[in-house]
Amino acid sequence: MLVIEAQNMAKSDSNEDGFTITDNKTGKSYDLPSRTGRMGNRLIDISKLYPQTGILTYDPGFSSTAACKSSITHIDGNKGVLLHRGYAIDELAMNSDYMEVCYLLLYGELPTPEQKEDFDNDIKNHTLLHEQLIRFYSGFMRSAHPMAVMVGVVGALSAFYHDQMDITDIDERRLAAHRIIAKMPTIGAYAYKYSLGMAFPMPRNQYTYSENLLQMMFSNPAEDYEINPVLARAIDRLLILHADHEQNASTSTVRLAGSSGANPYACVASGIASLWGPAHGGANEAVLKMLGEIGSVKNIQKYVKKAQDPDDPFRLMGFGHRVYKSYDPRATVMRESCHEVLQVLGIKDPKLELAMELEQIALNDPYFVDKKLYPNVDFYSGIIMSALGFPTSMFTVMFAIGRTVGWISHWKEMLVDDEHRIGRPRQLYLGEEKRPYVPMDKRGHTDKKTGWSWLWGGKR
Ligand code: ACO
After folding, report:
1. How many CB atoms lie within 10 A of CB 367?
2. Number of C-beta neighbours around residue 54 at 10 A
3. pTM
4. Whose CA is nearest to atom 26 of ligand 1?
C-alpha cells in the first residue's frame, strides 16, 4: 500500500510544499511537489514519480488527473461556476456575441472595437469551401449521419491547405485557426443540405456568423431568406454556451492528437469523432429520442425507476455530469433561452412540457439528489434546436460548430506550453505473461456454432 501524506497545506503554487508518499511494502518514502493553480484544487505533481520511483498511478477516465495546465476555462463543479478567461458564462451569453467569445478564448482578452472588426472580417474571408472539397459530399450516402460527414470533410481540409500547415509558424497557426472556425458552419450546413438533396447556399458576408449559419441551413434557393433576429440570437447563444468546457473528452482528444504534432484539421476531426458519442455531444440528440420514447407525462415515473435500476442500461439522458455536482450554469441560461424561443415562435411543444415535468421529478427524487445528478446543457439544447427547426441528427453538429473554437484554443495553448510532450498514458497490464508459441495442430478444437460473440465478451 502507498500512503500519501500532505506535508504543508500551502496556498502558493510553489513546489516547496508537497506530499510524501510512503511505500508500505518497502518502507521507502518519496517527496512529491504540489502545485496549485490560480483557482481550483491543489495537485500532487507526479510527473517525476515514475522516473524516480518506478511506480505508476492508475486513474481510468482521468477523474483525478490533470493532464496539462491551462488558462482558458475554469470550472467549479460544486458551485456550478464556469468562467472563460475569468468571465462568467452567463454574462458572456447575455452580453457578447459568439465571435467576441471566440476572440476571448483564442487570444485571452475581450477584443477592442477595432480588434473585433478585424476578427469578424477575417473570419468572413474564410467561409467559402474549395470546389474540390464540395465534391467530397457526393461521395457520402444521402442517409449518412451528418457527424460522419463532418469527420470526413473536416479531416479532408488538411488535404487542401497542406502548404500552410507549418505548426511551428505563428502566422500559419493563426490562419489555420481562423480558417477552421470560419468553415465549420458552411461544412455543417452543407452536410444537412446534402441529406435533403438541396443546393448548397453560398455563405454571405452581410450576415453575422450565426445569421449566416441560419441562412445556409434554412434558405431555399427559390426564395429570399429573411433572418429572424430572435432565432439568430438563440443560435448565437447556443454557440457561446458550447464554445469551451475545459478538458472534456473531445478537447482532450484534440490535445492528445495534437501532442504528436498532427495538423489542426486532423486534430479537430478527431475532436468531432469524440464529441459524437452519446455520453458527450451526442447526448442532446439522445435526450430528444428519450423524450420521444417516454412519450407522455404518465410514463415518467416508470423511466425514472428504469434509470435507477443497476441491471438496466437506461440512463436519463441530459442528466449528470463528470464535473458539475451542482446545476450546470449553461443549463440555466439554456433553460431561459428555451422558454424565450418557444414563446416568440408560439410553439407549444409537448416534449418541452414533458422535459419540464421530468426535470422536476428527477430533481426531487432521492436517487438523483443523492448522486447529484442535475440537468446538463444537453437537456435543454435539444429542445431549442428542435424548435428552431434543426433535425435531431444536426444537434451534435451544432455542438461541434460551437466547440471548434475551444478545441483550437486548447491546441494553440498546448503548442506553446514549455511542458508539452507527446501524450502517452501508461496501463495496468492484466494479460498473459510471456508464454511459448503454440503451433496450430496443438491448439485443440472449438465448436464452430459458438460464433464470435464470446470473443467479444459475450457468454459462451
Ligand atoms: N441516469 C441515471 N443514473 C446516472 C446518470 C443518469 N443520467 N448519470 C450517472 N448516473 C449514476 C451512475 O449509474 C452511477 O451510479 P453508481 O454510483 O450507483 O454506479 C453514478 O450516477 C455516477 O455516474 P458515472 O457514470 O460514474 O459518472 P461519470 O462522471 O462517469 O459520467 C456522464 C458522467 C457520462 C455525463 C453520466 O452522468 C451520463 O451518462 N449522463 C447521461 C448522458 C449525458 O447527458 N451526457 C452529457 C454530458 S454533458 C456534455 O457532454 C456537454
Report:
1. 13
2. 7
3. 0.88
4. 322
